[in-house]
Design goal:
Two copies of one chain form a homodimer. Chain A is of the alpha/beta class and 362 residues long. The first copy, chain A, contains 14 helices and eleven strands. The first copy, chain A, has two domains: 172 residues, Rossmann fold (3-Layer(aba) Sandwich); 147 residues, Dehydroquinate synthase-like - alpha domain (Dehydroquinate synthase-like, alpha domain). Helix content of chain A is 48%, strand content 19%.
């Protein structure tokens, strides 16, 4: 079992990572004095698979619980969906000692955190991430949000959980695509911050792909520690440090948007974005071709696409300039000086970005 | 002109109060580097009356502006209304240097602050309150919220403005009812924190009622300083200090709710709540009858009701126990030991509360 702390003064919290740890959840919650009534936001599949076990663990420690099922799709990240949850929550909350549990992947974590940040101007919430993506990334750091038609995550808040509880055994039930999606973020951490993790991912890919629990736990703990360190020093993305986590994401988001969020999922798009960012680094003389190939080969090992199909370049570039990170015509990208050595570069000529995006096209 | 500071570390801001100060707004905004594009949330009446002047003052200092008109009613404080504003805002925001101006009374301030707290996880906003109630109370302190059917202000955030800009000349156009509504909050500050203000309100009521600008400026400045002092020491209502501002509000909210938000407006209900709280203080031996009468006489001078009509006691008591401030069956009320001397009292027997509420009934 691993315990990692996110240091944010009065808003500090622990990330607990382990295998077979669900029976410790109640004790952890009691220590935190989060309240007595758990409003658990989850999807139907998770409730059917783990709901009874979770309810019993809570009941054993004196907590009431209520499951709120939301559809398992990005559509649950909307103001309308959040409004429905808030209304139901207000009706259920009689004792005034309610807290929220986000039990699911990234969508559920973002929605539940958003609801927790708003209900009565903020109630406690706990992240119990069930996907690799959520365990290594979205459950940590307090970015909560819902989407607008005009863009993803446009409405939200920085609102930290009281605990992130990563039961690695939940990852057993991930399918290949979900695993690959999480691995894109894992590879991102390795590329920007951890050469040793990069080498481990190269060497142990068979263990990872067969979901060997010990290696998954090691990966979740390593990535959680990287993210906790960054968030502790730059909670609200003001100093530029947290910006490093956007490696692959800026072009990735543009690829996702240009494909209408159908051609590529988040992990796949981030993978393509990382290849483009690595290639852009090469075009700017920051790394050699070997580094670009090492990144794209690692992505390929984990079943992530490294070649873009069927999304026109012009659409990607247009989407790129709608990104909420841009101010006017200025751009800002996280590039590389080597594996584990990120560099923020501003005002990159559009022509170079286009060339790099073309690199990842057939 | 008065300048008062709300001290909240990196979230500190100024309250500027004066007559004929609108032509200084642009300079103040430039100093704050809030952005270049002002998204002004207001109502139609205010836009027609002051919109052009405000737009010119902004343009003179290089700001773009856009007016977003919302209906002038509590219905604008809903998740649905906030969603519509957020969507329009995202469509208008091209430069990514947008900030929000709340130009209106309490409803507009709460809605605009709520929108600002959520858009892109928080953009700068400025309060330009136009009613007495908003200038002395709701524009200061960062409580933003919208209502649910189940209760008012159930969904929101603590999110501080960058500036509160109180142009006292806006108060000229208030009607009698709006003035009285603001005076209920002014009297509250006097009762809980300022004997001298209380005496001034007793002596100068004719000047206040004819909206003599100098006395209004003095009142706005005095009350703003009281609220700024309290918010600076207890931003999120954790230490109990900010709780003092609820004097008259707990029973007042119950009166408002029991009357279906139609029988009495907020100021009137708070006035009735203050009389009940003063009488409850007398029943507990904290003050004598003279103090109760002094409070109720002052309210009457300003045209506020001190006798409750047509709302059944049982309905008020039921609404009282639904208040979001209560935990289970425990209650907590702000009472008095004298003018300017508040006292928080817990677990008051229901029978005594009923008797006190009966006092304010015919």
């Amino acid at each position: 079992m691993h315990g990692i702390k996110v240091n944010l003064g009065p808003r500090s919290y622990d990330i607990i990572i382990g295998r077979g740890i669900l029976n410790r959840l109640g004790q952890e919650l009691l220590k935190l004095r989060v309240g007595t009534d758990a409003y658990i936001i989850t999807n139907l599949w998770l409730k059917n698979k783990y709901g009874e076990k979770l309810r019993q663990e809570l009941r054993k420690n004196g907590f009431n619980s209520h499951f709120k099922i939301v559809p398992d799709s990005e559509k649950s990240k909307s103001l309308e969906a959040a409004g429905l949850v808030l209304k139901e929550l207000a009706g259920w909350d009689k004792s005034r000692k309610v807290f929220i549990i986000a039990f699911g992947g990234g969508v559920i974590g973002d929605l539940a955190g958003f609801v927790a940040s708003l209900y009565k101007r903020g109630v406690s919430y706990v992240q119990i991430p069930t996907t690799l993506l959520a365990q290594v990334d979205s459950s940590i750091g307090g970015k909560t949000a819902v989407d607008l038609d005009l863009g993803k995550n446009l409405v939200g808040a920085f609102y930290q959980p009281r605990l992130v509880f990563s039961e690695v055994n939940f990852l057993k039930s991930l399918d290949k695509k979900q695993l690959a999606s999480g691995m894109a973020e894992v590879i991102k951490y390795a590329v920007i911050k951890d050469r040793r993790l990069f080498t481990l991912l190269e060497n142990k890919y068979k263990d990872v792909l067969r979901k060997e629990p010990a290696v998954l736990e090691k990966i979740v703990a390593t990535c959680s520690a990287i993210k906790a360190g960054i968030v502790s020093r730059d909670e609200k993305e003001l100093s530029g440090l947290r910006t490093l986590l956007n490696f692959g994401h800026t072009i990735g988001h543009a690829v996702e948007a240009a494909g209408g969020y159908k051609a590529y999922n988040h992990g796949q798009a981030v993978g393509l974005g990382m290849v483009a960012a690595a290639d852009l680094s090469r075009r700017l003389g920051l790394v050699d071709l070997g580094t670009v190939l090492r990144v794209s080969d690692l992505l390929r090992l984990y079943g992530l696409p490294v070649k873009l199909k069927g999304v026109p370049i012009e659409k990607i570039i247009r989407a790129h300039y709608r990104d909420k990170k841009f101010i006017g015509k200025e751009n800002k990208l996280v590039l590389l000086r080597g594996i584990g050595r990120p560099k923020i570069v501003r005002n990159i000529p559009l022509s170079l970005i286009k060339e790099a995006v073309k690199t990842v096209r057939h």
